Each structure stands twice: as C-alpha cells, then as structure tokens.
Amino acid sequence: MKKLFVALLLSVLVIACAATTVFADPVTITYSYWGTPDEAASVQAVADKFNAEHPDIKVEVMAIPNEEYVTKLNTMAAAGELPDCGIMSESGVLDFADKGLLADISGMYEGKESMPLDSITFKKDGAPVAYSGANEILLLYYNKDMFDAAGLEYPSASEPMAWDEFVALAKKLTIDANGKTAEEEGFDANNIVQYGCVVDNWTWQLEVWALSNGGRWISEDGKEVVINSPETIESIQKVADLTLVEHVMPYNAGLEDNGIQRSIVAGNVAMATGGAWNVGTSLPGVPFKYGVARLPYMKESVTICTGGPQVVFSQSKHLAEAMEFISWYMQEENSWNLIETGIWMPILEEWYTNPEKTAQWIENPNFPPAEEYKPAVVEFAMEKAISANWYYAPHMTEFDEYLRSILGPVWDGSETAEEAINNGYDYLCTILAGE
Questions:
Q1: Less packed terminus of the chain by CB within 10 Å, N or C?
Q2: How many domains does the chain contain in total?
Q3: Half-sphere exposure (CA, 13 Å, Cβ side) for 331?
Q4: What is the per-residue pLDDT across 216-268, written as a single tens digit (0 to 9) for each?
C-alpha cells in the first residue's frame, strides 16, 4: 500500500510539473526601435518568429519615432522604466554606458560558435557594452564606363592606390567643357563637366584619412582629443585641396550624408568614397557599370567601420532573456534580406573566414562581381578595419556636430584646416569631457 501511495504521489508530481512547464506564462520583454511603418512590419515579423521558436519568452515591440527616440529613452531611464533591450544610434552607446544604463554583455556569446568582429564591438574600459547589428565599412566606388571612355585601367580591388597616385588618376578623369583633362595645359577649372573624384566630407567619415595619415581624432583610450596633431590636420587639408588646389572634386559644404548620391549616382564623378551600404541603398538600377575597390591611402591603408548597435538595458529585470533575444536577432539569417541586397554586411567572424559562408554572402547578382567584392570589401574589413570613434569615446554626436560647423570654412578655402582645428580645439575637448 505504501509503495502504491508513493507511486501515485510521484505520478501527481510528474503531471503537475508537466502542467507547469506547458502552461507557465512566458517571460515578457520589451524591444524598442525607431523606423518607418514598413520597418515596423519587418521588426514585428522577426519578433513573431522568435516568439514562435521560444515559447518561454515573449518579445513585445515598442515603436518610438526616430526624432524622439533618444529623448524618450532618457526620460524612461530617469523613471527607471527603460525597455529590456533595443536599438540605439552608434554615437549614443557610450553616453548610456557612462550612465550605467547598459548591461554587462561580456557573456552574451559564451559557448557560441562565432563572435561578432572586434571592430564592431562597443567597449567601455575595455569591456563590451554593445555589438553592432550590422557591419559597414568605407570603400571606393568607381564608374567603369568613364574609365573605359578614358582608356584607363580600373582601380585594383586588392592593392589600394597611394594618395598621390589617386590624385593623378582623378586628374585624368576630370574633364572641362572643351574636353581637356585637369592634367592638360589650358584646362578650364571654372567649367568642369566631369570630376575625377569625391572624397566624402560628411564629418565622421573624415577620420579615416587621419588614421591613414598616422593621426586620429580621439586617443585610443577615448579620453583625449588629439585632432590637432599635424598628421590629422594635414589629412583634412589634403581632402579640401582636392577642390581648392587640384580641381578634381566639386565643392561641398559637408552638411549632408549624400556623397554617393551626388557623385557616382549623379553620373558626373568617376570615383567616390562611400559606405558598403550604398550597394543596396543607392546603386541598384544605375544606368552604367560600377566597381568597388579599397580606399586610397595617405601613409597606411585603413578603413573605418560602423553599424547600428543592439543593446541590453541594465534596468531590465530579465537580462538573460533580453540577451538571448538580441543575440538571436543579430544572427545573419534573421536579417538576410538586408544582407543579400547589400545594405548590411554580416557581423559574425565566420562569414569572413569560412569560404562557404563568404560565397553564400557575396556570390550574388545584387553585388559587384565576387572577385572584386571579396578583396575590396570582405578582406578589407577583416584586414584593415578600425572602429569609428564612437565605439570607444562618448559624446560623439555633439563632437561631430561642432566639428562639422568649424570645418565649413575649410571646404571653401576661407580658413585652413590648421586654423579651423586650432580655433575649435578647446571646445572639442570640453565636449569629450562632458562639460
């Protein structure tokens, strides 16, 4: 009788445990994002897929208008009501980390087969606080039809040009209304119909030239403004002189993020620097052949990378579940539509090192030929990419906005780069210090 009672009791316990497992309420977490109604549908679809695969976790999507996003998050932070996780702008990550609002995610990829690239890992005091949800690097685009018309060889996808070589090539491709190139006697610099190049002067992209020239904007530990170094000042002036001295680049005030649209897409520029995302956002359907190559270099071949980060907020009461969702969300198969169109690049190392995965990514009719794209983008990203400054320094939104304002006179030649940087240096230091 005693044995029967024990057996019955064990059966009841098993049934009760099974019922608890099946019918227990899932842990609910909130994911915040900004975007358009179309993006809302895409984000919700991803959340629905996760919820179907993870019955113990339910993700609720919180949409916040882009222009209100940071303000809203700050208000929620003050009230202790931040979502569990969400997307952020690159330049806002370290500001939130400094306030203790981001969770320790150092274990988020523990035990997984592949880690995100180190170059797209946001760090505070050397420890990761966020990973970009996509990788993006800067590279060189060129109009193959213009090269063909000039009888010139295409830029090498694997061997970048030195800066002087790049300028000389741009002169051969800059043509005035009379058909003379910028290297010919009698060239009319006031009546140019085709320019040889555009080196994008949208502010954050300019740092790649400082890095290439042996300088930087911010010290590697993120604590000191070093933009006043001779190497950095020289790099900015060299970009300006493409317009002011060499006459191979059209004037631009540097107030908009539209370098590829106003150059390669417009059809009046032979070579232009831009982001890898332009393969998917700006170049589909253009009425000419284009190619990709590594950026030219001043002293050292480098590129910089960025990508919108996905974060876990420290106020979350469900940190493990939030990290599980974010690491799942950032798997390439869950954003494949953005990768295969060329808007995003993968974040996990294996997509750059595993030949089968690399081929799956780049052998794609939406891309330039794989024999160009692989050395110019995939290998360039692995070999030469350096993190943009917001991966390791705070207050970069204000820093870039102020720097953009003081560089305006450099582009039209009313001030030198040295004058502009020296005049604004103290205030740039104040911004970095958060004062």
A1: N
A2: 2
A3: 15
A4: 999 999 999 999 999 999 999 999 999 999 999 999 999 999 999 999 999 99
| CA dist., res. 291 & res. 297, Å (int) | 18
Is residue 379 in a domain?
no
Q: Note whether 351 and 252 are same-domain residues.
A: no
Instruction: Note whether 60 and 121 are same-domain residues.
Output: yes
Q: Average pLDDT, stretch 379-402?
A: 96
Nearest to 141 by CA among 295, 250, 19, 14: 295
* Residue bearing tokens 């005030």: 253
Count Cβ atoms within 10 A of the Cβ of residue 10 and give its class: 0-12 exposed, 13-18 middle, 19 or more buried: exposed
The reported pTM is 0.90
Answer yes or no: do 157 and 184 share one domain: yes
For residues 131 and 156, membership in a common domain is answered with: no
Cα–Cα distance, 404 to 407 (Å, whole number): 5
Domain extent at residue 127: 20-135+307-372
- State phi, psi for 91 to the nearest 5 degrees: -75, -5
**pLDDT one-digit tens code per residue, 109-148:** 888 888 999 999 999 888 899 999 999 999 999 999 999 9
The answer to whether residues 341 and 219 belong to one domain is no
Please say if the pLDDT value at position 435 is more than 90: no
